[in-house]
Amino acid sequence: MKHRITLAVLTGVLFLSHSAHARVKLVALPERARVVVSLNNPDATLVEEERLITLQKGVNKVDFSWRGVNIDATSIQVRPLTHPDNVVVLNTSYPPNENALIWEMSSSSAQEERVRISYLLSGLGRDIAYKAVAEPDEKTMTLRNYLRLRNDSGEDLTEAEIRIGYGANFKKTIAHEEVLEMLSERIDGLPIKKILTWDAATLPWDPEYEKKTVGIPLSYVIKNDKASKLGAHTLLPGKVRIFIKTKEQAEKEGEKAGEGVAFTGEDWATLTPADRELKLYIGQSRDVKVTQRKTKDDKTNIRRNSGNTIVLHDTDEIYKIEVENFKKTPVDLVIVEHIPGYWKMVEHSHAAQFKKKDAFTFEYNLTLPAESSGNRKTTVTFNINRINVQGNEPASY
Amino acid sequence: MKNDLTEGSQVGGWESEQMRKQRRVSRIHLPNCSPAHLLICMLAVLLFWVASPAHARINVVTLPGRDSVQLTIYNSVDLTLVKESRFLTFRKGLNRLEFSWANTLIDPTSVEFRALTHGDEVEVLDVSFPPRVANTLEWRINSEFAGEVQVEIRYFTSGINWSADYVAEANKIENLMHLAGHVRVNNHSGEDYENAQVRLVVGMVRLVEEIAALARAGRPGPLTQLPAPAAMPEASAKLALYQEVDRLQERAKDAPRQVIKEGLSEYFLYTVEGRDTIPNGWSKRMPSFKAQEVPIVSYYKHERERYGDKVIRHYRFKNDKESKLGTEPLPDGAVKAFRFETDDRLYAFVGRTSVKYIPLNEQVELELGNDLEVMVKPVLTNWIKTDIQFDNNGNVKGWTTREAWEFELQNSKDIDVVLDIRRNFSGDWSISTQAQHENVDANKVKFVAPLKAREKQKFSYQLTIRHGTNATR
Amino acid sequence: MPALLCLWLLFTIAPADARIHVVALPDRDSVQLTIYNSVDLTLVRETRTLTFRKGLNRLEFSWANTLIDPTSVEFRALTHADDVDVLDASFPPRVANTLEWRIHSEFAGEVQVEIRYFTSGISWAADYVAEASNAENRMNLAGHVRVSNRSGEDYENAQVRLVVGVVRLVEEIVRLANERKSKSDDADEMQRFNRGVKRQAGVALGKELADGEKRERLERREIIKEGLSEYFMYTVEGRDTIPTGWSRRMPSFTAAEVPIGGYYKYERERYGDKVIRYYRFKNDKESRLGVEPLPDGDVKAFRFFTDDKLYAFVGRTAVKYIPVNEQVDLELGNDLEVLVKPTLMNWVKTDVQFDNRGNVKGWTTLETWEVEVQNSKDIDVTLDIRRNFNGDWSMVTAAKYENVDATKVKFVLPLKPREKQKFTYELTTRHGTNATK
User: Fold this and answer.
1) Which of C305, C345, C359 sits opposite A311 (nearest CB)?
2) Taking CB atoms and an 8 Å limit, are A268 and B208 in contact across chains?
3) Which residues of chain C are within 8 Å of residue A77 when distances are taken between CB atoms?
4) Distance, CA of C178 to CA of C151 (rounded, Å)
């Protein structure tokens, strides 16, 4: 094997003086009895290996060396497992210019000891990938969570227990430079909330004036909680690819139509702890049209200084938002509005759907009826007064 | 069980007419025989038998050519979902299935395997991307069942896209038109697709990484980039293939084909009836729909801040049932507009334009360019400055202007038209006018005037603006 | 090639005539290393047994391939001290790394001598391994010291002592040296001056150590720690051999079941939007520690997460020198499972004042803040949320808080596993002429 970690137990008399440089490397190279790869920490991969070594009574020198493997030498530790009370690590020596170290271990008697050696290994990367298949009604989906391991550490990992802190613990063999992908979890019937979000700050107010039809961002929102069949652990970041079930068209008369899928978009899932929501922005809808206008934009209570410059004023503004849903099914739309500074809502048409998000942002959560276009469209109006406006009002915090 | 790689198309027991034809065809594609053609090939992996029952017994699987292929092609991003089904013979226990490809852009992170029959007995344990080899993966599959299993393999590829285009033919008086829609599939993927079921997705899906870039990496993760795929094979070889495949098509080439359209989340899915062969480098254009006698209105817009002094002509119509449309949304695409000049239906080319995506029941405005035969001339007939106010230093602090505007409209065409004139104002303004108008918003006013053929009209308004300290809002 | 330290003893027969004798010398009887880590200095004391003649003796001491400060070498007779007298020490011309003592001895025979000098290239560092329980409310803490020998010389069978802490003496001298630096142009002179400074400091240190020491041999191998003046010294029991180029790491102490608290800090001006996690513990007797101060060093923290005590790596950090009874906060990085989300829910500008020119001269803002906290972990946590304000501000809240200083307020909230909480506060800030302080 090109890449090797070797463990040698040196027994017998300690060599002092100059011949301490020439270490006696010995004999039986015990194979690993167990390897555990722990991926809980995204910044570092921890490997713990267990070996059976034969100790003599008194002081033993155990030589641990590695070659072509990216081990962090300062992280190497050894713990005796079988007789922790009478096998003691006295000290560790680090020879110059070598990927090796030597433990001096004392043992109360001649015995076989199972030791666990742990170290941080770099080059063993992990990615999480998600694949989801939504039902045609987009109310639930099946989510598959994959663990993909890339082994660039320099050594083959044979029959290693892979632990990521959730899901099944796998026992896998990954060769150096191999990538291995395995299914960690599968959740069926995960509830999804589908919403369209129209943000007045980012989307054009008058689609008529745009060269292309305005697409309104479409998102699936899922919650990492028990009610959603999740909630057992934090959802790690990774790419989510969403598919939806489609009905295949029967090719021949009388033949049953099969089932297939179509891809409907992807997004990067951010780290989502338990009981938090994950919003996946996966595409755009062009079957919902939002036109926003300001039908009143007046200054009131104008106050001027001695130079007749306006130093303070209030405003009286009316916004009108016309929403058309051309689809044959109803859809949820969130309209996000931004008003800077100190303002008050005088009146609005959809008070029940209103929600203030923060000092300068509020939303209307609408459910648009199917085919509500033309004179069946939804119109939202709101009248606000901005107060004590000087021109330097904060819009964010 | 034979494991002959060069033949690669026998399946124990089952062989249909179609399979035999395909086998003849696939022989041309095998990488060992023919130099250039790309192919996705399933290689049989020969692994040693292990005697002891504790170790998994590893299977040799001989693979036939694809049973069937389905392409789902997207136009808003460079992505095509390919689905192929095959029949494989599994052994009980551990089976290793290797999938590799060359000269075609497949995203390795997108490849998926599914057993269509015996689904409960076949389970994928993991997928390995072997060290130092690109464009290859190996599924480790545990099967409780020994025998033939129908499997489906899906993956993303790049290089195939589709577009929509329209031909509009207006009648002489331009109040009705015929509208024909087409879809065109372009294949630059490097792979020939024969006998494929074609589906098109109308919609804006989001892709966070390019498929072509993921495909060029050859395997998942930030590993070494591989060189771009080999150059496209020569046309001559392809032409021969196309002719051969053409003979195999079951339907007559001239028969019109149905495109079935269905809603899919926020998108639409068009399924082209039957099967198609689209060799690499070729395009295929198919009719999508045809509507006769769609009512149209010639609609002219004038707005100085938008078009300057020009009057821009539009064909306005609605995608609804009353207009003989209204069955599906219209995907965005290029439009060629014509008009029948004479009774024997000679064409005049009206213009080349494009149409946005039009949902069901929405209004369409096909912009057709500047039309000099319809004129809008705004004239400022009077300008007054009045009501001047002074501050304590004797400087002017406020004043009011009053503008009188007169609009001359003239339709020099033989057809009825509708004019849409918009004016934008700012500050503390107000207008007074007899003409019918609409306050679009706090700063915009719209006048709409229908004009018959050869008609002239006039309208006027007075605009008052309060400046400086005269302004109250 | 190992360094060679040779000591040549030169004899003279007649006092007038220096007859030079070359005597083969035995190896060192014993070596003691006192390694000092905040300055690159190690005091080496070796004892040897030499045979003197009556009268003038010339003792040559030379070295090669090792970093000895020649001006620091000193000689002392341990036995027959009254009979042995150093007349002078000279550095022979055109020969490097050599000095020669001329010693007058009334006694003829074996004398045990001590030679002391400063070398550099040997350093030591402390490091710690913390193993937290699954619930992260307790940990085992193991301390180690690691000695690295890059001096060029092998040290065999040496007694090793480590000096912990910053020695004020040296600091002062170094400070003076730096002051002078700014005035002098002469680079060479400065170098010499700095070396001299170090030597003086070393000598003074050595004297102090020599004066203050009384060591006892113990049966179990241990590191004995004690305070001396401004600093601590660790004596590693027994003897060690550390060849040049090698390092050796030895356990310094272990403490089991040290109680720890999971302490999470949020402060936007300091950490941005992140919540930084700490293991908090105290170096006192109640916590199974409190025996000695803990020198600064790297820490690796693990957590047991299975019954067979498999590790999960929590993180790496460093700890400063910790005196006895002091609280320690081990910083372990960003924890994404504890969320602190402050939202400005309302903003009001009011009480606008104008000057006699009609311009705005003062106004007051009222902010209503809502802070959402969520613990998505399976263990109890304590959150420490700090907010910084400036200007003429005042805060009203129902939540419990502490005024850290004139511009900082602290909210401390304990949260159970999976618990969510919210608290609000109103901040009034008077601007311009409205401000009264």
Assistant:
1) C359
2) yes
3) 129
4) 26
Asked if C336's CB is within 8 angstroms of A120's CB, the reply is: no
Which tokens is A147 given? 């663990």
3-state secondary structure A32-63: EEEEEEECCCCCCEEEEEEEEEEECCEEEEEE
Query: Distance (Å) from the C-alpha of residue C154 to the closest C-alpha of chain A?
Result: 8
Element containing residue C234 per DSSP (H, E): strand C231-242
Secondary structure, 3-state, chain A: CCCEEEEEEECCCCCCHHHHCCCCCCCCCCCEEEEEEECCCCCCEEEEEEEEEEECCEEEEEEEEEECCCECHHHCEEEECCCCCCEEEEEEEECCCCCEEEEEEEECCCEEEEEEEEEEECCEEEEEEEEEEECCCCCEEEEEEEEEEEECCCCCEEEEEEECCCCCCEEEEECCCCEEEEEEEEEEEEECEEEEEEECCCCCCCHHHCCCCCCEEEEEEEECCHHHCCCCCCECCEEEEEEEEEECCCCCCCCCCCEEEEEEEEEEECCECCCCEEEEEEEEECCEEEEEEEEEEEEEEEEECCCCCEEEEEEEEEEEEEEEECCCCCEEEEEEEECCCCEEEEEECCHHHEEEEECCEEEEEEEECCCECHHHCEEEEEEEEECCECCCCCCCC
Report how far residue C95's alpha carbon sits from residue C73's, in angstroms, rounded to the nearest whole number. 16
CA–CA min distance A360, chain C (Å): 8
- Measuring CA to CA, which residue among B437, B428, B439 is closest to residue B463? B428
Q: Cβ of B358 under 8 Å from any chain A Cβ?
A: yes
ipTM for the assembly: 0.86
Q: Do B357 and A209 touch (CB under 8 A)?
A: no
B contact test, residue of A177, A219, A305 with most B CBs within 10 A = A177
Residue at token pair 């098509």:
B249
Contacts of A308 in chain B (CB under 8 A): 391, 397, 468-469
Q: Which of residues 264-283 of B touch A (CB under 8 A)?
A: 264-267, 269, 271, 273-274
Chains B and C touch, using 3 or more CB pairs below 8 Å:
no
Q: Within an 8 Å CB–CB cutoff, is residue C343 touching chain A?
A: yes
Question: Helix, strand or coil for residue B42?
Answer: strand
CB of C407 less than 8 A from some CB of A: no
- How far the first Cα of chain C sits from its last, in Å, is 73
How many residues are there in chain B? 473
- pLDDT, tens digit only, all 397 positions of chain A: 344 566 655 543 333 333 334 454 443 456 788 999 999 888 889 999 999 988 888 888 898 988 888 899 999 999 999 999 999 998 899 999 989 999 989 999 999 999 999 999 989 989 999 999 999 999 999 999 999 999 998 888 999 999 998 887 889 999 999 999 999 999 999 999 999 999 999 999 999 999 999 999 999 999 999 999 999 999 999 999 999 999 877 666 666 666 789 999 999 999 999 999 999 999 999 999 999 999 999 999 999 998 889 999 999 999 999 999 999 999 999 999 999 999 999 999 999 999 999 999 999 999 999 999 999 999 999 999 999 999 999 999 9
Buried b (16+ CB within 10 A) or exposed e, C235-261: bbbeebbbbbbbbbbbbbbebeebebb
Out of A21, A44, A271, whose CB is closest to C243? A21
Min Cα distance C64 → chain A (Å) is 16
Determine contact, residues A239/A278, Cβ cutoff 8 Å: no
Q: How far is A290 from chain C (nearest CA, A)?
A: 27
Residues of B in contact with A332 (CB under 8 A): none
CB contact under 8 A, B221 and A265: no
